UniProtKB/TrEMBL annotation:
This is Isochorismatase family protein. It comes from the Bacteria. It holds the Pfam family Isochorismatase. It comes from Dyella halodurans. Residues 13-165 form the Isochorismatase-like domain.
Length: 209
């Protein structure tokens, strides 16, 4: 397993999106749903910008949950979600095989719901020796208490918690890395709140002498 103290680098990571579907988002009470969607889109765009393998999985898409939410699908147009029956990605042969096939040992998880599908996948992958990071602000629980209790359980088991902006900044780390500069900056400006406003201001108003 990769050391827990090692900073994220693109060629070690894969993104796993779990049940980011409207039918499940309806039940989220731990975070504003529009914020959750925006955070997940930002995370998906980050994965594309840094060329991370992406595995998306859905459940009950035809009978209740609906497809992967369109803004997320639009951010990852080349990714076909894997439909499964089990709540646990790790207990679905096709979804698990897709994650393993990435060859990456550090998994960034984002999904619904924190109390179930996210927790189950994180604990199962951890047990199989993966370094697992749950992107907590791109996950949603039924209640704030349920979400926080799920995160506490995961952290106690050895899963790391992070945020989408930390993932982006950790992968970039140096704004002189020109190959990802434009894409990373665009994501921050679009989704980074006040920080994004500051970057846009710096670009437009501050000119080096």
């Amino acid at each position: 397993m990769t050391s827990a103290t090692t900073l994220l680098v693109p060629d070690e990571c894969a993104l796993v999106l779990i049940d980011q579907q409207a039918g499940l988002a309806f039940g989220v009470g731990s975070i504003d749903r529009q914020t959750l969607l925006a955070n997940t889109v930002a995370l998906a765009r980050t994965a594309v910008a840094f060329n991370l393998p992406i595995v998306a999985s859905t459940s009950a898409s035809k009978v209740y949950s609906g497809p992967l939410m369109p803004p997320i699908q639009a951010a990852i147009p080349g990714v076909q979600p894997i439909e499964r029956r089990s709540m646990n990605v790790w207990e679905d042969a096709a979804a698990r095989a897709a994650v393993i096939a990435t060859g990456r040992r550090r998994l960034l998880l984002s999904g619904l719901l924190s109390e179930a599908c996210v927790t189950f996948c994180a604990l199962s992958a951890l047990a199989d020796g993966y370094d697992v990071l749950v992107v907590a602000d791109a996950c949603g629980g039924l209640t704030t208490a349920g979400h926080e209790l799920a995160l506490r359980r995961l952290e106690a088991a050895g899963v790391k918690l992070t945020s989408w902006i930390q993932v982006l900044l950790e992968l970039q780390r140096d704004w002189t890395r020109h190959e990802t500069y434009d894409a990373a900056r665009a994501i921050v400006e679009a989704h980074g709140g006040g920080y994004g406003i500051g970057l846009a201001y710096a670009r437009d108003m501050i000119h080096p002498t």
